[in-house]
Design a protein that fits this description.
alpha+beta; 5 helices; 30% helix; 31% strand; globular; binds coenzyme A
Length: 172
């Protein structure tokens, strides 16, 4: 399999995850209850390092898995990891783990990089499989990037979700 490329947009980049090196910073993102309720399930307890390592291994095996980084000018231009995202044709889980980096347009720029990548790979569609109905920010993010509501459902735990899809095929 060819190595994953790093995807860049100015002071933002998506670089392939590095294991086990990235587990320590990622672990810190998965201690926050609000982040967990939005990205996992409501009531999810903080994840252990082992659990994060297993989750990351799964994502590496099931898609193109990236660490989201921003260039920190105050820190000599070093790239600072702030979250993770997986690109696969049927799912697009994204977590900006650092809450202070949210609502600044980063999620939208991450999606733009991944949409361009999926087009380059010739994929016909992209999909955000299950977004909890209460996750207003994530629903807005995908809507704003042009994804349209494709389905609604309820997970086995009784939690309502929405599914969003983006058609990448050129119009006839
Ligand atoms: C959801 C998430 C990825 C969005 O990324 P972001 O960088 O914060 O979003 P952006 O700043 O690019 O905003 C994109 C759009 O969503 C809106 N938005 C983002 N967060 C919002 C919130 N909490 N409430 C309402 N709208 C919100 C923005 O106003 C913007 O709308 P616009 O395009 O109409 O102007 C990020 O907030 C996050 O990681 N949250 C925690 C984990 C999570 O929910 N992951 C998704 C699981 S499905």
């Amino acid at each position: 399999m060819p190595a994953l490329p790093t995807l860049e947009d100015g002071d933002l980049r998506l670089r392939p995850v590095s294991l086990p090196g990235d587990i320590e910073v990622a672990w810190s993102w998965y201690q926050d209850k609000q982040t967990l309720a939005l990205s996992q399930r409501p009531g999810t307890e903080p994840l252990s390092r082992d659990r994060v390592a297993r989750m990351y291994q799964y994502q590496v095996e099931h898609g193109d898995f990236y660490i989201i980084e921003v260039r920190d000018q105050r820190d000599g231009g070093l790239w600072r990891p702030i979250g993770d995202v997986m690109l696969a044709p049927d799912t697009l889980p994204i977590v900006i783990g650092d809450p202070s980096a949210r609502r600044q347009g980063i999620g939208r720029r991450v999606l733009a990089l991944l949409i361009a990548r999926a087009r380059q790979l010739g994929w016909p569609t992209l999909q955000a499989k299950e977004i909890w109905l209460y996750n207003v920010g994530s629903r807005r993010l995908f809507q704003s990037a042009g994804f349209v509501l494709a389905a609604t459902g309820v997970d086995p735990g009784g939690q309502p979700y929405e599914r969003y899809r983006l058609d990448l095929r050129p119009p006839d």
